[in-house]
Amino acid sequence: MNRNGMVMLGVLALALGGGTASGQVRLENVSITMGVGGEVYGSDGNFLSIAVPQVDSTDSALGASGEMGANGRLIFMAGNGRSLSTDFDFGMRQFWTDGFQARNYAPRELSGRVQADYRQRLGGGTLLIVPSLDSRHIADRPPLPLYLAPGYSAGAVVANYSRALATDMAFYGQLTGETKDYTADLPALDDLDRRSAGLEAGVQMFFRGRPETRDPEIRDQSTLRFFGTYLHHSYPKQGEGLLRRDNAARIGGEFTLDRRDTQGFQLALRAHGTRSRSNSRRVDYNAGRIEVEGSVELGEDTQLDLQGLWAVKRYINQQDFLIPGEEADNATIVFAQVTRFLRDGVRAGIGGGWRRAETNFSGAYYQRFSMSFSLTVSPRF
Amino acid sequence: MRAFLLLTAAAVAATLAPSRAGAQEVGRSPLELVEYWNGVYDAAYRRYEAAAAEFRVLEENWNRLIDERLQQVESNPARAERILGEILSLSTERTIAQGQVRVETEEWEQVGDSFIGALDNYLEILNNTIRGTPLGDSLDESISLYNFWHERLEEVERQLAPNLLLVLEPMPEVVARDDDTAEDLERKATLLENRALRDSAGVVEIEEKIATDRRRLERDRSTADLSARIRRFGDMTIPVVPTTEGGPEIVGDTTAADRTQTPEQRIELMEAYRDEMIARVELLLERARELRAEAARRRM
Known about the structure:
The structure holds two protein chains of two kinds. Chain A is mostly beta strands.
């Protein structure tokens, strides 16, 4: 087990131990999910990435997967203008594949994430500190057309301060630091190791719904947020003598519409554009991303959830191969799931997803269709 | 009877008291009005807390005596009779205290409404001022004032909100007296049964609220679970653009109440309240049965 994994387990053990001793800790929002699915992978056979260990000449393959995951929240304190909680999430997914030319692979993914959340009223605003540890391990990683991200360990800290400017407007400032080390089971993966720092400032506006739904218990509101971000990324293993350093400016916005209690749906739209410049001119680029999330109630016991992402990138200078650390230039991802509420704390879901990623310079692509059935249990403690 | 007269006197006094709002609002600036209502509200809240604390003490003693009498009624009837005397003596005091709590609660809530109204008005004015003020000391001062009074508004709303829910009405004081006729006892039993019926309706209402909140929680979890599954295995993460993501939800809904309870905690509180209510209904019906049995015995 790597160092971050040990730390994560330690944090969790301490948290659970503390709960037993003090009796003050609450365990909430626990969900345990089991799922099975079938997948189809395809590519034009020309997609090459340094982050993928092998090459297989097949253009299409089949797969099946089984997964288990658990997530929840430990609440250590809440009240008197302060709160401290920790979210945890662990999972395992096992694949079986068929249709590869060299051999059929059986990749297994293990993931874990622990994220604390401390917030405190301060100077008329709210200070938020969010440290997190994130770890991913993958065994028997396959070649394309099944792309599975490499394993890594990551640690991040976000410090956010927000304050009201008016009854319906708040500003915030945010500092972020992150370090991400990829598992070195392939020498080229070391190139992906990254240190990042970010500074973000933004304004968020709130709009309540109709006057008859002004009750704060009724969710009938929308928000609009605009932000600007400066990002610095350094790649300590890329470059000889002169290490690669990227500086990026990003502007974006987010619109959320929450009509869950009045019309049975909610929607979130996010979009941002990034201008990234590097001390290596080869990787100067401009990029854009649009994300959408939504949920709609379909009758008393059913709900449809949707998530989608569209990302595009254009390099300033001619590219002949993918930049290390970036498995594609453009991507489209869509997930949808219909959930049936079977009984209190038990849900069944049928969902599907489509992912397609491609390069700008050759038009090479890979894509993945998946369908899955899942059962989720949320026990009460 | 004495309690009834005292309550009536208190109600009449409250009704005839001059309207504080009408008397005080003339000629005051919005800030002065807010400061005025702040003081009035604090005083009303302190009076309410004092009355509620006094009633809680009496209620605890009263319940203790009731339980003690029930334990002694078979084994030591003389002792039970003495306890009954204490209960009757305490009952008057308790009824007065209960009435005082109601009066103070009503006063506190009325003052709270006026205070919130004044705060809303003043914050709206400040909001408009902030929008029209250029950067500088004047703007900082306005924002500080805004934040100060906005926090106060949230505090007042928090103090007032819990009183709307989850406080059981005191147990009705209905006991069999030596001079009660069988008909009197039948009437008392009917009284208790009516109260049980009313509380049963309350149980149904709270059950509906629990069901609504549970359904809401399930739907929220369903959405969160899908996000968790996608994120867990990096299925949404294609590092097309190096990102430093996973940032927190932005805090700053300045109009939302500061909720220190999670949805699960709120549901648990409601469930505990429902259970308490069901126990109360059973107790009321049990006492009604006892009264009817006593009425039947006295008829013989």
